[in-house]
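Notes to self, Agmatinase:
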Amino acid sequence: MHFDPAYSGNVFIKSHPNYEESEAVIYGMPMDWTVSFRPGSRFGPTRIREVSIGLEEYSLYLDKELEEVKYFDAGDIPLPFGNPERSVVMIEEFVDSVLADDKFPLGIGGEHLVTWPVIKAMHKKYPDLAIIHMDAHTDLREDYEGEPLSHATVIRKAAELIGPKNVYSFGIRSGLKEEFKWAKENGMQISPFEVLEPLKKALPELAGRPVYVTIDIDVLDPAHAPGTGTVDCGGITAKELLASIHAISHAKLNVVGCDLVEVAPIYDPSEQTANTASKLIREMILGWVQNRK
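result:
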């Protein structure tokens, strides 16, 4: 019997079977070791892949089909349960290897801390890296309850590595007063509540630079994405998030890698969140992979 893994639910739909021939690599980071409210995002990568079977392969938004981009699904990195220190090392090593092969890394989380080792790897290859960060939360704490390795510290770590002025956060609606103060004093760009319009204004500043995009699914209002660990009301719509992804595509920004994190399927029996995430990933693949310079 012929078995096609691209339609089995084991890999993201239409994945290419050959790593060497692929332009991009999808990989899962099934970790939720440091979450402060509800665990479960470690199951996100698997379920997003499984529901991707329901996607149309054609994007009406971009007039492209998935078969036009060769991307390989490498599966999940086998992260050691409960060990964030070792997990971030393994993620960084994996992304180092993908970048060494000049491929576009597209990560699926997992909690948002998984983005930190990816940024470290990206910065080694692209010293002038900028970050577009879409999220409900600032994630700018130095530590959370005394723990510096936390999903609440990821953007602070990234900003300290690449320089706060190179981090552009959108959709933020929750954080400590001290976090907003630190961002302002250090020149970091935070756009509260909204994403699309402030993003459009920022895109010209990012032209010609290597850009990494990290999207926390909780930037969406819980009405659009209830399946996440730390829900926060007052978020944007799925339509606005799609339009924001497309704005980056149409600007032909030099996106060199991206991730989508914090999908926790157990809290959404309707699977609305996982299905939305898979569609967002389709648009990220079609809009960003071939724009690399």
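- The mean pLDDT is 95.
- The helical segments are 44-51, 84-100, 115-125, 154-162, 177-185, 196-206, 238-250, 272-288.
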